[in-house]
Amino acid sequence: MEGIRVVWLKPPDAWHLDTCGDGREIGDYKLMPVGRRTRLDMVFHVTYDDPKKAEGVREWVRDTKREWDTFGRYLEADYKASASRRSSR
Question: Which of 31, 37, 39, 60 is the most exposed place for a label (fewest CB within 10 A)?
Answer without folding.
Answer: 37
